[in-house]
Amino acid sequence: MLKTIPSKLPDVGSTIFSEMSALALECQAINLGQGFPDYPPSEVLIQAVSNAMLQGHNQYAPMAGLPALREAIASKVQTQHGRSYSVNSEITVTSGASEALMSSLLALAHPGDEVLLIDPAYDLYEPSIRLAGARAVRVPMRPPQENDPAFCIDWNRIEAALTDKTRMLVLNFPHNPTGLTLKSEDLDALETLISKHPILLLSDEAYEHIVFDGQAHLSPVSRPLLAEHTVLISSFGKTFHATGWKVGYCCAPAAVMTEIRKVHQFTVFSVSTPMQAGIAQYLRTADALSGLSGFYQKKRDRLLAGLKETVLRPLRAEGTFFLLVDTAALGDGLEKELALRLTRDVGVASIPVSAFYGDPNHPEANHQLLRLCFAKLDTTLDQALERLQGLENRLAG
């Protein structure tokens, strides 16, 4: 008889995203929970991938990625952030941002190391850190206050959490789930921190091309000191409305990238060749990236306008395709319980922000906030908003 297999992640089950999406399907609810669009990628991009298949790009790509795509990434990052990366030794195409994150953490975090996370934090980070044998140290943002209804990074608290065991700080901006973006003063604070504590920065920038109200996305790699310590990670799936394609990338100094590639080559070896070739071709078109922020800002503003007719109070969203709503008008209680009731009784699925904390049931993880995804067709958003009007009466019933 097979012996019981000890689990490396005994407390990990299905993610909140899978759970809420399954419930949405069961209840025929509108899914504003999991972050995927319900509209197709650009027809030009789809044709570019199709052409790549017909042209014979169907066998293994080089382990680090097709040279054409790595060149396009180098050009994009240089234009966007003023940072030059070597196509041969400092850029790797990955199976989505998730694989880039996992490979980076497995390569760079060691048993006994500590890795700092800023709460609320995306749920992939801590399990990856634990699989690397390291320990996650979670440092919360200051939650929304009555006179300042937004999350706020406390850099003094982050520095206070550093020890001689700290290997890395994980950044995620534009931030999922809060929608915060980094400002110049945040990069100043990071430079001060790194000058005193030369740790690594793992910068998850999956929503880098979705920023609003005339802002520019500020990456740590735009500062030379920070770039020397940073692994930049991003996602073409998020950028081009093609989350199922699972194509991302990471950029890092050559010595760091050497270690990441050692894990990457034995994790997936290489990434879908026709997808890489098609994306490389599409990036040559003038409007591949330029219209994304405007496209999503219209959707954000549509959701904001509709929420005025409900008791949900939206928080400021500076980037990503997520919007947080304050549910205080619906009473107290665990955020997840409200999200479940909202799905079952009102027909709109969301994600409780408490799911992005180490202990979702702890009072300090529950700020009466839910995350809504607006990467949806206008008709989908309008149907959801119609259901959310008068929701307090249906929940009370």
Automatic annotation (TrEMBL):
Molecular-function GO terms, alphabetical: transaminase activity
Cofactor(s) required, per the database record: pyridoxal 5'-phosphate
Keywords, sorted A to Z: Aminotransferase, Pyridoxal phosphate, Transferase
Residues covered by the Aminotransferase class I/classII large domain: 30-388
Gene3D superfamilies assigned: Aspartate Aminotransferase, domain 1, Type I PLP-dependent aspartate aminotransferase-like (Major domain)
Pfam families: Aminotran_1_2
Lineage: superkingdom: Bacteria
InterPro entries per record: Aminotransferase_I/II_large, Kynurenine-oxoglutarate_AT, PyrdxlP-dep_Trfase, PyrdxlP-dep_Trfase_major, PyrdxlP-dep_Trfase_small
PANTHER family: FI04487P
Protein's UniProt name: Methionine aminotransferase
